Amino acid sequence: MSNDLRTEFIPKIVTDLGINYNATEKLTIALNVNNLLNVLPEWEFKAENAAGEAILADPAQTKNQSNLITFNQRYSQMTYDGYHFSQLGTMFNLSLNYKF
After folding, report:
1. Which helix (DSSP H) or strand (DSSP E) does residue 47 occupy?
2. How far apart, in whole angstroms, are the C-alpha atoms of residue 58 and residue 56?
3. Terminus of the chain with fewer CB atoms < 10 Å: N or C?
4. CA end-to-end span of the chain, whole Å?
């Protein structure tokens, strides 16, 4: 990507839920849901100068720049440095714990 554009990541808030139930003195059931509302990451290009504005004004050039960092739109939720987002999608975890 050129020095005419920068990628700006948009902060997001995710909601997690955890429920524990003591069924008996020795048996506990736990349900955890991470990213309950399935919030996905977002990013956008920002122009750094007039040349960047020209790129953003042309859909074909903008798509070309996007393809460079999203592996041809196969991973459009994140870019080549997608480590900014620790989780994509909702994850469910149900556990049953027994104390001996």
Report:
1. strand 42-47
2. 5
3. C
4. 58
State how far the alpha carbon of 48 is from the alpha carbons of 56, 80, 94, in Å. 11, 20, 47
Tokens standing for residue 66: 């996007």
Q: Are 1 and 56 in contact (CB under 8 A)?
A: no
Order of strands, sheet of 91-98, starting from the edge strand that comes earlier in the sequence: 17-22, 27-34, 91-98
Sole residue written with tokens 């041809």: 72
Domains of the chain, residue spans: 5-98
How far apart are the C-alpha atoms of 39 and 86, rounded to whole Å? 12
For the stretch 2-54, pLDDT in tens is 689 988 888 888 899 999 999 999 999 999 999 999 888 788 899 999 999 99
